[in-house]
Amino acid sequence: MSIQERPTPDDRDALILYGTRFPGRLLLGTARYSSPRVLEESVRAARPAMLTVSLRRQAAGHNEIGGQAFWDLLAQLDTPFLPNTAGCHTPEEVYTTAMMAREVFGTEWIKLELIGDDYTLQPDTLNLVGTAEQLLREGFKVLPYCTEDLVLCQRLVDVGCEAVMPWAAPIGTGKGAMNPYALRLLRERLDVPMIVDAGIGLPSHACQVMEWGFDGVLLNTAVAQADDPVALAQAFAQAIAAGRLAHRGGAMVERESAEPSTPVIGTPFWHQASG
Questions:
Q1: Dihedral angle at the C-alpha atoms of 100, 105, 108, 109, nearest 10 degrees?
Q2: 20-22 and 15-17 strand pairing
Q3: Which tens digit of pLDDT belongs to each residue from 167-181?
Q4: Domain definitions of the chain by residue range
Q5: Between the N and C ends of the chain, which has fewer C-beta atoms within 10 Å?
Q6: Contacts of 186 (CB under 8 A, 6+ apart)
Q7: Is the pTM of the predicted complex or chain greater than 0.90?
Q8: What class does CATH assign to 3-274?
């Protein structure tokens, strides 16, 4: 299903990326599930805004689910695709993969992954901005996977990215937000949609970054490798919704000292203490 065909939600707080409205704030990966049934049930439980897919897995033909059946299944899930450039280490690899993905999936959307280090899977921050700029010139709607570095994210916005995807922690670690200060500063300084991508392991991690004002969360391993992926898919969807509601509701500011929730003025104890 194309993004353009997806029903427009009535929710005034819908996630908006490049002018397109989405009914949810969870993006879900499609790798590492144990079976087609588990993948399908997880997607239906999470009801994600988009499903990330890797062209390289299709080309290689060794995804876990196997061959054409994998793509036939995804086509039945009624959820827009977000192709990615996973595994690309050079701008040239990114361009080639993105062009092929646009042809195969019929979409201008691309999750830009340009890996600079194979151990941490950290993005190549030196070449990421130029690569994003080139993809934008080619008409892509670029969602760049990046670190929480404020200057890097600002440069991505400066060249035309209408959203950025900073990590919470390295891909697949499940550690949650390792640098809360940098992430919260990033949220305060940049006025574009931001989706936390990578490193989220628990629903509480997802809820926390949503409470800070982030606009969405992208997950894969935390759901696919859970003992019960379907339960975790639902838990993450609910946690993200709760975190967003808490942010909109203006959660209280943390204090260093206690403050009574019940007023004591006018009670016998207060008269005794004041006398």
A1: -100
A2: antiparallel
A3: 999 988 999 999 999
A4: 3-274
A5: C
A6: 148, 150, 153, 166, 194
A7: no
A8: alpha beta
